[in-house]
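Hey,

Quick one before I head out. I ran the complex with nicotinamide-adenine-dinucleotide overnight. Inputs first:
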Amino acid sequence: MAYIEPAPIKDKENPLESMMERFNIAAEKLGLSDEVYNVLKNPAKQVIVSLPITMDSGKIQVFEGIRVIHSNILGPAKGGIRFAPDVHIDEVRALAAWMTWKCAVVDIPYGGGKGGVRCNPREMSPGEIERLMRAYTLAMIDVFGPDKDIPAPDMGTGPREMAWLMDEYSKAKGTTVNAVVTGKPLVLGGSLGRTEATGRGVMVSALSAMEKLKINPFQATCAVQGFGNVGSWAALLLEERGLKIISVSDISGAYHNAQGINIREAINYRDSNKGTLEGFPGADKLADPAELLELAVDVLVPAAVEDVITKKNVDNIKAKLIVEGANGPTSFNADKIINEKGIMVVPDILANAGGVTVSYFEWVQNRLGYKWTAERVNRRSDRIMKEAFDQVYKTSIKHEVPMRIAAYIVAIDKVAQTYQFRGGF
Ligand code: NAD
């Protein structure tokens, strides 16, 4: 088809461009018409606002706020709000599309959205951040809504900011509307199980893939890059399922113990050590943290940052299975070599979708006016993750494509079919 562009060969690969390359391949495999391709490629709505905020100094500073709804074909848009100095409309657009595919692959009734405010929250006081969040919410009052667009935290925002958003939105509507946003504190209608949800989904994806590859979890080794929310929960839950976690890393370095790292001890150490593993006594520090990615393990879980498996190191990867906890850890240019090496990859839009799944449960509970137990949340999210894995796996066999392209095929097919049934103008 005319829209397939040649693969970019550059020194620095961009994870968002990588996402579009895979989208293009899946669209071609599906035989998507140019008309529907154009509908899915372009965002449905883009809003840019100016937010004048009185800073603590008494001076007024103007911030740019963005919200992009990529698609509302499957349902209301869903996606985080990023507070960061490098927020840019192009990136927000791509991240919103990413959310569309992630929600579609796990079959939850949401479209994709993303928002951001260009600011540096590290240099702002809590009061300044609060005024900015409230101003952003009010500026987006006609965009957000439990049936229209449901934001969530992203880089630079968390439960505190979501509480301010919910409060400002509720004041403007004259009634408490907690379903307008997810990732709220528990007392405001947040869901049990949300904290561990993404790591838990990584665990379910890993075990499902190991079953297909006939890897016995009780004889398997694993390395986890990143020891934050996703990485530490994934490591703990995989350890509980029998895997030996021989290496973990964070920004301070990578730590290795061939006998297996006690993950609970590592978490306790991190929590009592200003959030880092630096000096962790239960393992040896590797000379180069990048070595973690090249260890001869059964399962590798990149759960830190994007673009860590690239054409520069892909030849040295020895894992049999890669489960992408992070968004975009593998570049497009590394895909081909990974496939040639016969390594199975459970791609980000599937492997880390446990988080958005439990966000969806938060919204469901808010709308029901009811609270589920952690056990019910976990059971339902495990089922969704397993079913999504099975569908992607079947699609990969049917179309003879890697799991990553299969995940895009499942997602794009779902959105395209829904669009065609709903019809346009
Ligand atoms: P986090 O901030 O809690 O943890 C990040 C971890 O990565 C920290 O341990 C940090 O020290 C480490 N790290 C940072 N740079 C590193 C590097 N160069 N090498 C090794 N370790 C490094 O973040 P998180 O919420 O765990 O998110 C991790 C990834 O998962 C991100 O890509 C995020 O977009 C993605 N993700 C998160 C969620 C979620 O629910 N939290 C959902 C979907 C996707």
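Residues 1-11 have pLDDT under 50 and may be disordered.

Talk tomorrow,
K.
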